Amino acid sequence: MGLVKSKPVLKVKPKPVKEKYSDLSGYESARRKRFLHAEAEEAKQEEAQARRRLLNRELPT
Fold first, then answer.
1. pLDDT surpasses 80 at 50
2. Which residues of 12-43 are buried (b: 16+ CB within 10 A; e: fewer)?
3. Which residue among 4, 5, 33, 58 sits deepest, i.e. has the most Cβ atoms within 10 Å of its Cβ?
4. Where are the domains of the chain?
5. Integer Cα distance of 17 and 61 in angstroms
């Protein structure tokens, strides 16, 4: 009559999704890849700011 230990529940963390650029040929320089990555990040930040501004307008004051 021993105690039955249940197995711990393991939560799987989702892997970050890397955006793939469809217009890349594979021969881009590291500088070009950094530039494209920075452009994509900047676009994401602008979208997030626009979304926050929109949500702030919708909140009742």
1. yes
2. eeeeeeeeeeeeeeeeeeeeeeeeeeeeeeee
3. 33
4. 29-61
5. 36
- In whole angstroms, give the CA distance from residue 55 to residue 51: 6
Beta carbons of 23 and 2 less than 8 angstroms apart = no
pLDDT of residue 1 exceeding 90, the answer is: no
Which single residue is written with the structure tokens 């217009």? 23
Cβ-Cβ contacts under 8 Å for 40 (sequence gap 6 or more): 19, 21
**Which SS3 state, helix, strand or coil, does residue 48 take?**
helix
pLDDT for the residue 2: 60
Euclidean distance between CA atoms 35 and 29, whole angstroms: 10
